Amino acid sequence: MQSFSSWAKLYDKISEGYKQDVKFYNREARKVKGKILEIACGTGRTYLDLLKRGMDVYGIDISKEMLNVLKEKARKEGLKPKVYLKDMRNFKLKERFSLVIIPLRSYVHNLTIQDQLKTLKNIRRHLVPKGKLILSFRFPSTDIILHKYGMTHEQTIKTDEGIIKIINEPILIDQITQIIELKKSFYRKNKLICKDRIKIALIYKREFELLLRLAGFSKWRVYGNFNYGKLKNPNQEVVWIIQK
User: Fold this and answer.
1) Are 118 and 211 in a shared domain?
2) 193 and 84 in one domain?
3) pLDDT of 30-85, one tens digit each?
4) Which of 87, 111, 152, 178 gives the lowest tally of CB atoms within 10 Å of its CB?
5) Closest by alpha carbon to 50, among 22, 71, 90?
6) Are 60 and 41 in contact (CB under 8 A)?
7) Which of 78, 79, 30, 32 is nearest to 59 (CA)?
């Protein structure tokens, strides 16, 4: 399981353009009564939005550096986060939750069937009766594999220390093991400042439905976007609302 710790301080700048799911999770959180858990809460992109709205929200992440950024942001806003350094596969909390969320495709960092199933079973143990799990990931269509993962992409972000160029390069696309590996390189004034390798799993819709059944779930709804639209084509985001 990867932590992205080497570029935790840059994460907010990298992901700031991705906001389409925050309102969705906020809307779903307002529907439940009880505690909420965000898995892979990172620097608080979604978590702090829920906390600011007065919700009883907890968070876990595998990266100490990511959580440090979250805590500092919370301190500046006078908020008191309840976040813990834990792994989604085997975390143990005494609380039980009405809602568990895994935003921004973080579930696919479970690379093996064993880890994917362990995570789902562990989440189910932490849900109250009729509690919900909500997550999303990309459908691994040919276009997504070729153009999102199979091509080099560049991104430029502005920081207090200057402009940083990020180059995302494919290293491995293995459709047999359903694993994709990418290299992320960060440059300031053409000088490499850090790099990381990211692995993700490709998970198909029917495959995930089987995982849910094996984990003990039997009820779910599937959408093709964060506006509850129908899943019509393989290039959409697959959004899951799963009930215990």
Assistant:
1) yes
2) no
3) 999 999 999 999 999 999 999 999 999 999 999 999 999 999 999 999 999 999 99
4) 152
5) 22
6) yes
7) 79
Q: List the Cα angle 46/49/50 in 5-degree steps.
A: 90
Domain span holding position 152 = 142-200
124 and 151 belong to one structural domain: no
What CATH number is associated with residue 29? 3.40.50.150
Is residue 67 within 8 A of residue 58, CB to CB? The reply is no
The mean per-residue pLDDT over the stretch 114-123 comes to 98
Same structural domain, 129 and 33: yes
| Confidence label for 1 from pLDDT (cuts 50, 70 and 90) | low
What's the N-to-C CA distance of the chain in angstroms? 25
Residues 94 and 171 in one domain: no
Nearest one of 243, 244, 241, 207 to 102, comparing CA atoms: 241
- Domain total of the chain: 2
Confidence (pLDDT) at 38: 98
Asked whether 176 and 138 are in contact (CB, 8 A), the reply is no
Q: How far apart are CA 156 and CA 14, in angstroms?
A: 9
Residue 98: its pLDDT value, please?
A: 98
Q: Among residues 111, 98, 102, which one has the least CA distance to residue 136?
A: 102
pLDDT tens by residue, 168-227: 999 999 999 999 999 999 999 999 999 999 999 999 999 999 999 999 999 999 999 999
- CA torsion 150-134-119-65 (nearest 10°) is 70
Q: Nearest CA to 149 among 176, 172, 165?
A: 172
Block residue for tokens 């965000």: 38
